């Protein structure tokens, strides 16, 4: 693991990060470092280094107020617990009731002049943590971490059938379903996709299993496609063959998010509490 600037080595002063650590310990991307230098955003005074990382920014995302559950926040990152039935960002002009709009409202209400920068997405009815970068530096570092598969996303799901404990990994490429615009399917010509599976509990009377899942890749609908392909569609996931007897939308929840902090490089682990749907399902199946 790379080491960054330790907490005792830096302080924020307005738009500036002030540190006694060497510039190399920030691991600034080369192009970004050049831009900062050209803009006069890097200054040295004695053994102190000042870098303007916290500029006020304008964002075109219209604010939409809702009561957000903040799971983690500091000067560099924000993690929000996304509810079911909400898109991460607008998909058509004029759409405003999305998580991006809610985050824009949160920033405005807390006096933070920031752009909304999501690092990853969740499907509309999938719940759990969504990570945002609060400045350009953080976005560059976290985007690179996503590309390098260094951000761990752990999910839980209720699925149909008794999942075998021998099902540890689903390695099957995913592509578009040419017969259905909104669906994806396992396809030899698709993009590589790997999902790791752990059986948590099985409920023989209901013919249901609770599984924990970790993504190695992040394809659209990956978990939903892979579990359906394995013969265990998610409860409530009608698009991929799941029964709606117990749930009206897919029973999929982001349980934990792990990432290396952009500045100090310590691992941050953020857990999202189970939703009422998940608690109800578990109670029902445990009777």
Automatic annotation (TrEMBL):
Pfam families: PseudoU_synth_2 (PF00849). Residues 78-228 form the Pseudouridine synthase RsuA/RluA-like domain. GO terms for molecular function: catalytic activity, acting on RNA; pseudouridine synthase activity; RNA binding. Keywords: Isomerase. The keyword Protein biosynthesis does not apply. It is an enzyme of class 5 (isomerase). It comes from the Bacteria. This is Pseudouridine synthase.
């Amino acid at each position: 693991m790379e080491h960054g600037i330790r907490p005792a080595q830096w302080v924020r002063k307005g738009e500036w990060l002030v540190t006694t650590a060497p510039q190399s310990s920030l691991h600034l991307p080369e192009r970004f470092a050049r831009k900062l230098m050209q803009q006069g955003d890097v200054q040295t005074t004695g053994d102190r280094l000042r870098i303007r990382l916290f500029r006020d920014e304008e964002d075109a995302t219209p604010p939409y107020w809702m009561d957000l559950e903040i799971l983690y926040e500091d000067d560099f990152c924000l993690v929000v617990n996304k509810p079911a039935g909400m898109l991460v960002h607008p998909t058509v002009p004029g759409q405003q009731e999305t998580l991006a709009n809610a985050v824009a409202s949160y920033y405005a209400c807390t006096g933070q002049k920031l752009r909304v920068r999501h690092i990853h997405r969740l499907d509309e009815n999938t719940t759990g943590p969504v990570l945002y970068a609060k400045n350009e530096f953080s976005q560059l570092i976290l985007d690179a971490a996503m590309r390098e598969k260094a951000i761990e996303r752990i999910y839980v799901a209720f699925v149909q059938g008794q999942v075998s404990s021998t099902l540890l990994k689903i390695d099957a490429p995913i592509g578009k379903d040419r017969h259905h615009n909104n669906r994806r399917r396992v396809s030899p010509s698709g993009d590589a996709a790997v999902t790791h599976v752990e059986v948590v509990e099985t409920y023989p009377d209901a013919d249901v299993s609770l599984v924990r899942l970790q993504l190695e890749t992040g394809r659209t609908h990956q978990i939903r496609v892979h579990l359906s392909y394995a013969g265990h569609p998610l409860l409530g996931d009608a698009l991929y063959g799941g029964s709606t007897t117990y749930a009206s939308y897919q029973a999929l929840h982001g349980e934990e998010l792990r990432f290396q902090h952009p500045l100090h490089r310590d691992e941050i682990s953020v857990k999202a509490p189970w939703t009422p749907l998940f608690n109800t399902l578990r109670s029902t199946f445990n009777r």
